[in-house]
Write a structure and sequence with these properties.
Blueprint: H1 6-20, E1 25-30, E2 43-48, H2 64-71, E3 94-98, E4 112-113, H3 115-125, H4 134-138, E5 143-150, E6 156-163, E7 173-178, E8 193-197, H5 198-204, E9 208-214, E10 217-223, E11 228-231, E12 237-240
Parallel strand pairs: 4-9, 5-8
Antiparallel strand pairs: 1-2, 3-7, 5-6, 6-12, 7-8, 9-10, 11-12
Domain Core: 109-235
Biased composition (Low complexity): 58-69
Protein name: Iron-sulfur cluster assembly accessory protein Isa2, putative
Length: 242
């Protein structure tokens, strides 16, 4: 690096002094820090329009309310959302006709009958149905009985059969019936009833009686059993919680 001679240094110093004396010249001046302010600048720029120095403000005064309003943006997701609640009880689609039962905790033991199962039961139990034989017209079907027995590949299995009203035991059986159809086109006179004894209802309480149509055929099935921990592929055997 080439060193500058003494005359060259003096020349640069005189030029710098002459520029600082010109109107509008700017130069850097160290900032005097204040202990009472939390924000400061390392250097500040002052103007010298006519040889007089005017210091720029070192900090901006702002109140806590202004700071919170300017630097803390409102979050629209923090606003409370109003949720509408209703106290109207929902109408059950299935009613208990006879012999209602409760579990050990005093809760009612109920089942549901799906709309498909109810429609199919009304068609089967309709005396005017063309598919009903002469024997059934003399002693028509009245309900679908569901019985749970031990066996099957998972410990329990349920059996279904169509029975007449004479098979109902008023002391042992609980009779459920689906609500009347809301579709005006359904003019069948059949009934959508399901009958269970006490032990069977205890294992199937909370489940739904459904009617499915598959490639292998159509059948009534038990679905959404809250007590079942596993089910067989055939759909008739299940295991329950201890």
């Amino acid at each position: 690096m080439r060193k500058m001679s003494q005359p060259t240094i003096s020349l640069w110093a005189s030029r710098a002094a002459r520029k600082q004396s010109l109107p509008g010249a700017l130069h850097a001046q160290p900032c005097q820090y204040r202990r009472l302010h939390t924000s400061h600048l390392g250097t500040r720029i002052v103007a010298n329009p006519r040889g007089q120095q005017h210091a720029l403000p070192t900090s901006r005064q702002c109140t806590s309310s202004t700071r919170s309003r300017n630097y803390l943006p409102q979050n629209p997701w923090q606003t409370k959302q109003r949720v509408a609640f209703t106290t109207t009880a929902q109408k059950k689609a299935t009613a208990v006709l006879t012999n209602p039962r409760v579990d050990d905790d005093g809760n009612p033991m109920l089942i549901e009958i799906s709309q498909r199962a109810a429609k199919r039961l009304r068609d089967i139990t309709d005396p005017a149905s063309t598919s009903v034989s002469t024997t059934l017209k003399e002693n028509p079907y009245n309900h679908l009985r569901i019985t749970v027995t031990s066996g099957g590949c998972h410990g329990f299995q349920y059996l279904m059969s169509l029975e007449s009203s004479s098979k109902i035991d008023a002391e042992e059986d609980t009779v459920f019936e689906a609500e009347p159809p809301t579709d005006p086109s359904e003019t069948t006179k059949g009934e959508a009833k399901v009958v269970m004894d006490g032990p069977s209802l205890e294992l199937l309480s909370g489940s739904t009686v459904d009617f499915t149509t598959e490639l292998i055929g159509s059948q009534f099935k038990i679905v959404d059993n809250p007590r079942a921990t596993s089910n067989c592929g055939c759909g008739t055997s299940f295991d329950v919680k201890d």
